[in-house]
Write a structure and sequence with these properties.
The protein has about 230 residues and is an alpha+beta fold. It has six helices and ten strands, in the order αβααββαββββαββαβ. The strands form two sheets. Strands 1-2-3-6-7-8-9-10 form an eight-stranded antiparallel beta barrel, surrounded by four helices. It has a two-stranded antiparallel sheet with strand order 4-5.
């Protein structure tokens, strides 16, 4: 973990330099668009790696199935973004509307009592993060980490025993992004988000990414989910 802490310290030192300093205080509101194809493609690739078989592209979970006319909502997930910074310190909340097939996958699990099939209903996955933000001319850069939270549609109407099976947290995340200001108050950009089971797991993966031979086998867990962002600064 020492290399990770050193990396964070160096990042904070550089982002504190005046040339890179973000606006002293700034509120952000925005929207994000996540390509569902990036998720289903990764899922197919993992299944092929695990089972060595060609994946049937007509299965139910894949909105890109052949012969199906795709709507915008089948190709993209929509997210909402709010953030605030105090100097380089950056806090953000992002919520992504999830289709039922992803909620079902995320909430399925197996324990000593058997297999529980997840909830087949839409939901919101939220990223609650804190990190650092800085600017270089019209370019806004940030890096943050935090916890994930899941809300199911009409969750409160579930029976108490079923509500107990809803995971309130889904591990941790690491996010990096870059926005380009097309005006003084509006930017477009790209964010990459990687989700981990825990902060401990995230630390081991990052060690592998930065070349620690003990955790090199975990480096491939660092998969960034792309998000296109439109942000308004107040």
């Amino acid at each position: 973990m020492s290399k990770l802490l050193l990396f964070i310290a160096v990042l904070l030192i550089f982002t504190g330099l005046p040339i890179f300093a973000a606006d002293n205080e700034e509120l952000e509101l925005g929207m994000a668009f996540v390509p569902i194809g990036a998720i289903t493609k990764d899922k197919d690739a993992q299944m092929q790696e695990d089972y060595g078989a060609q994946i049937d592209q007509t299965n139910d979970y894949d909105p890109n199935a052949q012969g199906k006319e795709k709507t915008f909502m089948e190709e993209w997930m929509i997210g909402f973004h709010v953030a605030y910074n105090w100097g380089i310190i950056y806090a953000s909340l992002d919520a992504i509307a999830l289709p039922p097939f992803l909620v079902k996958e995320m909430t399925s699990f197996e324990d000593e009592f058997g297999y529980f099939e997840g909830f087949d209903r839409p939901g919101f996955l939220s990223f609650i993060d804190i990190g650092a933000k800085f600017t270089l001319g019209d370019i806004v850069l940030f890096a943050s980490t935090g916890i994930n939270d899941l809300y199911l549609y009409r969750e409160g109407e579930l029976p108490p025993d079923m509500q107990a099976k809803v995971p309130q947290t889904l591990g941790t995340n690491l996010r990096i992004g870059a926005n380009y200001k097309i005006t003084s108050n509006l930017s477009v950009g790209l964010t990459g988000t990687s989700v981990f089971p825990s902060f401990e797991n995230m630390g081991k993966v990052l060690k592998g990414v930065f070349g620690d031979p003990e955790y090199a086998h975990m480096a491939n867990q660092m998969q960034l989910l792309p998000m296109l962002a439109v942000t308004y600064y107040m």
